[in-house]
Amino acid sequence: MSTETTQRTAIVTGGASGIGGAIAKQLAADGALVAIFDRDGEAAQAAAKSIVANGDRALGFEVDVTDRAAIDAGVAEVREQLGTPAILVNSAGVTVAGPSLEVTAETWNRVLAVNLTGTFDCCQAVLPDMVAAGWGRIVNISSSSMHSGVPGMAAYVSSKAGVVGLTKVLALEFGRKGITVNTIPPGFIETPMMRDTLSKGVFDMDLQVSRTPVGRIGQPEDIAATCAFLVSEQAGYITGQVIGVNGGRNT
Ligand code: NAP
């Protein structure tokens, strides 16, 4: 089945790295005009350049998703340079590990600000355009950790559980406007964030792989393939869903 997304404008937050980077690349390969939002503007532009070098279309923008004014300014730039956004993928995220009794208010607020409030603010910034167009696709990247919890990741897991709730609410509010809102909670995916988490000893990779039915760690492209389908025309009857991409864990 074709998942072609030709000519639509897509914003991918956190698109300079890891899962967001693979999603940006896949949507551009499917024909979308891709805007990469990342807090590191140079990294966002470098990621866009590598997409353009493949013959596809992308621009990078320095947007910190904890800064609502920067989100609105970024979306305005996208409208001007690439067209009205019809697709939004929220992949920007941070993880902080540590025992719950040692989590400071600052850490808690920072993780929630990026992972949950940033996701909400980006949705709120693009939804009016989608409503006006009568068509839209939003995919929020949550985390398989929200299925079971993970010791030492209170802020992260709470933020991702919040993203699942937010996804369901937006799906209900905007379903009749032609807009679908879904979430992918990835399992263990080989990215800079995962390598950093492993280096802190939060997970034992061999143990995790042994508990994964398909017997391997996931790749960013595994998430990108599912996301590309969810933002396609053909996925219009899927909304408010939690689509696990985790090698068979947490089913
Ligand atoms: P990643 O490689 O670190 O990519 C995340 C990107 O988001 C980075 O470019 C990061 O920039 C950017 N970012 C962080 N804070 C931001 C902010 N305030 N504004 C804009 N951009 C910001 O991590 P990843 O593994 O691809 O993670 C992508 C998403 O998947 C995250 O939401 C994560 O929670 C989720 N996830 C990942 C896994 C996994 O196994 N990898 C599993 C479950 C869920 P910096 O590099 O400057 O921080």
Automatic annotation (TrEMBL):
It catalyses: a (3R)-hydroxyacyl-[ACP] + NADP(+) = a 3-oxoacyl-[ACP] + NADPH + H(+). It is found in: Secreted, Cell wall. The keyword Oxidoreductase applies. InterPro entries: KR_dom, NAD(P)-bd_dom_sf, Sc_DH/Rdtase_CS, SDR, SDR_fam. GO terms for molecular function: 3-oxoacyl-[acyl-carrier-protein] reductase (NADPH) activity. One of its GO terms (biological process) is monocarboxylic acid metabolic process. Keywords: Cell wall, Oxidoreductase, Secreted. PROSITE patterns: ADH_SHORT (PS00061). Residues 8-187 form the Ketoreductase domain. Belongs to the short-chain dehydrogenases/reductases (SDR) family. This is 3-oxoacyl-[acyl-carrier-protein] reductase MabA. It comes from Nocardia macrotermitis. The gene is fabG_5.
